[in-house]
Amino acid sequence: MTQKKRPDRNSPEWMNYPGEVLRNSFTREGMMVAFPTCFPGATIPIVHDESHITALDITPGGIVHGGTSGRQTHLFAANFHGHSGMVFDLGTPQGATSCVAVCCGTNRFLAFVNGPRGGRAVASKLQTIDSDLIQEWGIEVPVLDDVGECVAGEPVVHAVADASRQFVIGVTKNHLFTTEIESPKTRVVGEVSGSGRIAVASSGAVFGSDGGGRVWRFDPKSGSLERGAVALPRGDWNGPMFWAKDGRAGLLYTADASGRFFAFDEKRGFSAPLGSLPLAPAGPMAVTFDGRVFGFCGDEMANMFCYDPARREVSNLGVAVSVIERRRYGYVFGDAVTGRDGEIFFGEDDNGGHLWLYFPRIVPAQV
What we know:
By secondary structure, the protein is an all-beta fold. The chain has strands at 31-35, 52-58, 64-69, 75-79, 86-91, 98-104, 108-115, 118-125, 145-149, 156-161, 167-172, 175-180, 186-191, 198-200, 206-211, 214-219, 224-231, 244-246, 251-255, 260-265, 269-270, 275-276, 282-287, 293-297, 303-308, 313-318, 320-322, 328-330, 333-338, 344-348, 355-359. It has two domains: 1-28 and 258-367, no CATH class; 36-231, TolB, C-terminal domain (Neuraminidase, 6 Propeller), CATH 2.120.10.30. The protein is built from no helices and 31 strands.
């Protein structure tokens, strides 16, 4: 018997394809807007199979910087404030097929990319896309500087900027390294297990999975690395970790491979399970200004979830859909970052990937 050809996930036929079950309804709270990777009406989007958005960061002024994965990597910048509304393609780092992190400094940004040449850093100046942009105005394409390998022969797994935005702390498959943003100089700190994403806590210390049910701790100020510094709570920690930071409350959030959701406080350690995500594994997540965590979970057809610390409750918000201008469904996401005004940006890790803006529902005040 000939198997029916699997349709594209953003085609109407997807919903009727055998074996594809709509596990939940579409976005039930707040509003999603899927924005193409271009300046609508003036430029074309990033090519179909080069547009998996897998890395995002944002400047204090609200300019998003990101990178894609696919046949080749593109770096981009985006602004949605004032009279702007555009994603600008900054160029393609030579030989790169994946972007695992973008880190914004005060004047420049570093993008960490992988390809046949190994894991490398690429630097360029931060973009200052005018908030009163009109289609007739041009933007200069910047120069992308190849900083070179981070650790010889090893792909980069993830990287984050420190609290001062002067340094980047990153991990390869087997090592921890630091890189200066303004005048890129890389130093290998020591060996770690580079098995997932890393996060900066409220003190400025950086944490990451160390294998064996523990996390390492690195202090950028002193340069000290403590292996196995903190024990993970009981759970399934075999998969890569995602983190979300609540700078207001001084917490990091994460989830194990089975979807059990935890908070981490540097003084008290990990909490008991705060709840279970609707699906597993956990994907990218971010914290908005009132402390609520929004993210995606599950494979193939990810569902959006919300953790509300005021209610200590995890809720399922459904599958992402945008109905503004053109209907688009979102099933796989690669990264998330909180915007200038509390909105959350999600990078779609799919062919023809869009930059999704999520505007959370405003919770009525208690009177």
